[in-house]
Amino acid sequence: MSYLLLSLTSIIAGLISGVTGTGSSLILIPVLTATLGAKEAVPVMAIAALLGNISRVVIWRKNIDWSAFCWFALPALPAVVAGANTLIALPESILNTTLGIFFLALCPARHWLKRSNFTLRPLHLLFCGIFTGFLTGLVFSTGPLMLPLLSAYGLLPAPLLATESAISFLLYLTKSVAFTRLGVLTPNIIISGLLTGMMIALGSLGAKRIVLALPPAFYSLILDGVLIMAGVGLVLG
């Protein structure tokens, strides 16, 4: 019954993350924790997010902004490894609470940045990638952080979701390899991660048509909701 619940929740999470570009980790972590335990939830979600982002990359591959991808993702890779190693030594609850507060502050901040016509340049993306990569190694999800940053770079909904998916795929691949080298991945974690990831991918298949039909203002409202959900979830979790 617990794995059936996990599968159904994963499909719903895939649909939501396919529309918003993030959110699957935040929806699934409570179910994963209840099913497998908190210690195994992080590596399971890393594998699941890897598979979930594969489907989104395939669906949105023609919309990827490769310049933004390279400036953001490539410098983030060594930072992901550093973050995964730091996760072993530091209390994750403190890090999640800090990041949750940041997400809650990010919601009004991104509107202020938009009104002030603030934009990120390629060099800014490089430093944002290093910072986000380190956090990706530490916590469940940094999608709510990546989306406003890439949006400030000038990416519209379709390229935004496509590029975020490609970046997330590479970061979670690196995180999974780091967990493998640290000896964290057991057969049960791998199987659970593959099952969850396949269900997320299934849910993502129905999202593209929804995204293309959304007006920009409504999409922005959804993104605000995800940021608030992410912040509250991390603070309370």
Automatic annotation (TrEMBL):
Localization per record: Cell membrane; Membrane
Primary site of residence: membrane
GO cellular component, one term: plasma membrane
Topology in membrane: Multi-pass membrane protein
Segments traversing the membrane: 41-59, 66-88, 94-113, 125-147, 153-173, 185-205, 217-236
Record key words, sorted: Cell membrane, Membrane, Transmembrane, Transmembrane helix
Family annotation (InterPro entries): TM_pro_TauE-like
Family: Belongs to the 4-toluene sulfonate uptake permease (TSUP) (TC 2.A.102) family.
Record's protein name: Probable membrane transporter protein
